[in-house]
């Protein structure tokens, strides 16, 4: 059991962790995959090759050590990670494997500093945190399994429709192979998709935002074709775009995610860039279905009109409801201003007088750099952080 002595020892090892940096977690992953190669079918191997996952894990370990006396500060991160873990079907036994390799990594990289007391403290600290995740994830698993249309683990779905939404984004409508109902979800959440690409050595799992409001019968995800389709970038998205056709089956994990729309009875502003429009599309549909009477504003930025997804879908909803829309194209092809479009990067100061700065709720999704800029702009205009909600793709990051 974690006690005060353990906590003091953990705190004393923070300088050691910081001096090791991401090299610590790189060693950990190399060790774990060498001894337990079956885990390559669970972890995102693209993030392993780019180093993103090693950096994310190191930051998580360091944050835990620094907040060992105030775990409440990590509550948001724990909830986000727990949801992500369920979309990979992480099980309790996986924590045992990870814990073993984490302790052995510390022993191998810092043999002199890793005394018996330090080993005991870190073992107890890891077991304590692992149990928090195991308990929360089991709650999520059971909640989804028992709900109407729910399931646990993977379920076979068939691609019933495949439709391009823009130059780089393709929508896939997924219908359950067993003909049953599908689990409801909060708009803004994502699906875990498990496939084995022709160019991959392992099973690959990716998360894609649900891009339409729930309907009880099928799901829609909209996937951007990333990179060059190599192991470093875009392996799964290229496979889905180029090889998965109508009638093909994929394994799907239940909807998950801690980023979703919550009704507050206030005006709403949806802000996205690029493929970050996918969860916003689900929110926009849901708000329209529920006939939200408070003002709704939809703001989007992308490279040009050819890469602007859901143009007609959004225009139909916005026009029917009399809602506000503004679009920014960095390099437009043929700007006509039909959707209140402007040239350049999103500049909220241009439209500040039309935004509910002092009482609205703001939801944003897109590349991290974009969201960082949006948050800074909103704060500069007077929007409190408690009214700014965001989604981050890939390994967890804080804005």
How many separate helices?
12
- Determine the fraction of residues in helical runs and give it as a percent range: 25-40%
Strand content: 15-25%
Order the strands across the largest sheet as they lie in space.
4-3-6-1-2-5
Assembly state (oligomeric): single chain
The CATH superfamily of the largest domain appears as: Globins
Mean pLDDT: 92
Broad structural category: alpha/beta
Order of helices and strands: HHHHHHHHEEEEEHEEHEHEEEHE
Q: What is the total tally of β strands?
A: 12
CATH class of the largest domain: Mainly Alpha
Number of domains: 3
Shape: globular
CATH architecture designation of the largest domain: Orthogonal Bundle
Gyration radius, rounded: 22 Å
Indicate the CATH topology of the largest domain. Answer: Globin-like
> What is the distance, rounded to the nearest whole angstrom, between the alpha carbons of the first and last residues?
34 Å
Low-confidence residue ranges? none
Main beta sheet: strand number and arrangement? 6 strands, antiparallel
Notes on the structure:
- The active site is at 95 (charge relay system), 137 (charge relay system).
- Pfam families: FAD_binding_6, Globin, NAD_binding_1.
- The protein is of the alpha/beta class and 399 residues long.
- The chain has three domains: 4-146, Globins (Globin-like, Orthogonal Bundle), CATH 1.10.490.10; 155-256, Beta Barrel (Elongation Factor Tu (Ef-tu), domain 3), CATH 2.40.30; 268-392, Nucleotide-binding domain of ferredoxin-NADP reductase (FNR) module (Rossmann fold, 3-Layer(aba) Sandwich).
- The protein contains twelve helices and twelve strands.
- It has helices spanning 4-12, 14-20, 23-35, 45-50, 52-66, 75-86, 92-109, 116-146, 235-242, 277-289, 311-321, 368-381, and strands spanning 155-164, 169-176, 190-195, 204-209, 219-224, 249-256, 268-273, 296-302, 324-329, 341-343, 361-365, 388-391.
- A six-stranded antiparallel β-sheet has the order 4-3-6-1-2-5. It has a six-stranded parallel β-sheet with strand order 10-9-8-7-11-12, with helices on both faces.
- The longest helix has 31 residues, at 116-146.
- The mean pLDDT is 92.
